[in-house]
């Protein structure tokens, strides 16, 4: 009986979506996920601003900024917010010359437009508003 209940629960569980709900931070765990999110944001239909939080589990300032970044994602569902752990996804961090955490990168049309290095909430919010307006 327990097996049947577990199977029913598994069947009722929603399948993981390719694109998480707008207004959320999307964690990147593979180069395929990274490519998919960047390609989608750059598609001719959307051309969305992408904000990437380069973080690390051992980084204290990163833990302070995480809920702030999540709050910005909720307030700005028209922007793609990605989170990249530099230890897990070294290739991406190296591609963008990330040397300090947290580093926030602003991208549009596949190009880096700006960056904020450090746990600077006001600067992050200011740059977000600036690049959303463009």
TrEMBL record:
Per the record, the similarity remark reads:
Belongs to the thioredoxin family. Plant H-type subfamily.
- Please give the organism: Eleusine coracana subsp. coracana
Q: Which PROSITE patterns match?
A: THIOREDOXIN_1, THIOREDOXIN_2
Alphabetic keyword roster: Cytoplasm, Disulfide bond, Electron transport, Redox-active center, Transport
One GO CC annotation: cytoplasm
One Pfam entry name: Thioredoxin
Under which name does UniProt file this protein? Thioredoxin domain-containing protein
Q: Which residues form the Thioredoxin domain?
A: 7-133
Annotated localization: Cytoplasm
Q: Which GO terms of the molecular function aspect are on file?
A: protein-disulfide reductase activity
């Amino acid at each position: 009986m327990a097996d049947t209940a577990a199977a029913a629960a598994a069947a009722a569980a929603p399948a993981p979506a390719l694109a998480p709900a707008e207004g959320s931070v999307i964690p990147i765990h593979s180069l395929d996920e990274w490519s998919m999110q960047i390609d989608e944001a750059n598609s001719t239909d959307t051309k969305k601003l992408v904000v990437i939080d380069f973080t690390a589990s051992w980084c204290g300032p990163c833990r302070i900024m995480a809920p702030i970044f999540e709050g910005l994602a909720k307030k700005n569902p028209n922007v793609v917010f990605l989170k990249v752990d530099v230890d897990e996804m070294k290739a991406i961090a190296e591609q963008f010359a990330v040397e300090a955490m947290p580093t926030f990168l602003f991208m549009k049309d596949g190009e880096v437009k700006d960056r904020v290095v450090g746990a600077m909430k006001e600067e992050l919010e200011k740059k977000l508003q600036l690049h959303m307006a463009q």
